[in-house]
Amino acid sequence: MTTGGHVGHESWLERDRLILLDSAPDVVGIASQPFWLNWREGEVRRRHAPDYFIRLADGRARVVGVRAEDQVDERTAEAFAATERACSAVGCSSVVQLYPV
Predict the structure, then answer these.
(1) Helix-strand-coil split of the chain, %, nearest 5
(2) pTM across the whole model
(3) CB 96 within 8 A of CB 67
(4) Which residues are within 8 A (CB) of 22 and not within 5 positions of it... i.e. 6 or more apart?
């Protein structure tokens, strides 16, 4: 086990992905909903909390979003894209994991 303790999850999909992450040999740390990303789209304020922050054994970081494919509408896709841009700007990768239902 990576953390030796409980890591939060909000859905069965997140739980299943968390189990895989926790047993991956290159994952040394996991945090659930690690931060809020806030941005504007024109006059509209937006925000998104990614599902997980992962620290890898080589020191790299990864932000992970987990969703069912049928739960990704235009607004959600925009939030994932904003998260990817923010992560790229600070040298971190962002991964969205979609699961068929």
Answers:
(1) 30, 35, 35
(2) 0.85
(3) yes
(4) 1, 2, 3, 7, 30
Q: Which residue has the tokens 């990576």?
A: 2
For 32, phi and psi rounded to 5 degrees?
A: -90, 135
Cα(96)–Cα(3) distance, integer angstroms: 22
* Spatial separation of the C-alpha atoms in residues 89 and 71, rounded to whole Å: 27
- Within a 13 Å sphere around the CA of 12, how many CA atoms are in the beta-carbon half? 3
Distance CA(89)–CA(100), nearest Å, equals: 30
Asked whether the beta carbons of 93 and 80 are under 8 A apart, the reply is no
Distance CA 54, CA 29 (A): 6
Grouped pLDDT means (10 residues each) for the chain, 101 residues? 72 87 91 92 92 93 90 90 91 81 63
For 15-47, give the DSSP string.
HHHHHHHHH-TTEEEEEES---EEEEETTEEEE
